[in-house]
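To whoever picks this up:

The nightly regression suite flagged Phosphate transport system permease protein PstA as changed. Nothing in the input moved, so I suspect the structure step. Input below, exactly as stored in the fixture:
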Amino acid sequence: MTVTTPQEPRTATPIANSLTAGRLPASAPWVILGVAMAVSAALFAIVGFAAGAGFDWGGAIAVGGLLYIPSIWIFSRLVEGARRATDRLVTALVTAAFVLAMIPLISLAITVITLGASRFDVEFFTSSMRNVTGEGGGALHAIVGTLLMTGTAAIISIPIGLLASIYLVEYGRGRLAQGITFLVDVMTGIPSIVAGLFAYALFAIFFGPGVRLGIAGAIALAVLMIPVVVRSSEEMLRLVPNELREAAYALGVPKWLTILKVVLPTSIAGITTGIMLSIARVIGETAPLLIAAGFTQSMNYNLFEGRMSSLPVFVYTQYANQGNPPEAYLDRAWAGALTLILIVMALNLIARLIARFFAPKFGR
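Regenerated output under the current build:
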């Protein structure tokens, strides 16, 4: 008879893993950041008191951020291991880069809002600068000119850019498509003043030298918009799955109807977003409009007759040609800059709303 002795239970050997060895508390990064800021503030306070100067808040915050990055890495390395320490170090560097990128944007927004709010009134939006040499006046003529020239540029460039992108994606093969792609790439990088010189030279051929017209400014903006529309629309059309095209072809749908009924509706949200962003990009151009359309102090609703002002040129002329008192001209310049930023912001919001509402719904 065989007698079996009970075996002792085996104890699992713990596995040394840097992911489970230890972890800092959730509040540890904030505590380390606060200590780093406090140390930096103390150092700057001592230096400022010794030098007889004021406290430098910007320098204290910057040095505190620089102290935080190696500190979080050291504490994480001691407690959590090398892997998590590297992750926290990269996270701190990315966060610091984001903060550095946001500082100029926030500073610009605060400066424009603070200095432009003084003339952000009803008179600024209901009157022009005709017969105004000092205080008062407004930018109605510049706002109307900006809307007219930008709208005309959009009417010219959107069909050309969209049709060119459809040709490149759906039909373009060989050297012709390569040549168009090369020219679009070249046009994307041309300086804006070159577009203004082109529009001025084009109209000078027919109307003589020295001509300044609103339609010339619209042509200059259209030259800048077309490559942006082509590139953005081309990328959106390439994202449409080929299975959708093949399904339409299998049902006997012609290619042009497939593009019209399948490809364009699927990519309409991205195309619309790209178009709105291209408009926002050219609406703030100054050099081409200053050359092609010129500037005026009076209202002008006709693109084909006389000079036409725009908001960027209005801001430039108010700042460059200051009169008496100069504060009135600077206030109008800052108010015009604030108006232009609000228009660009509105266009971006409209683009996001269109992208959300017109995006294809994949759920049942």
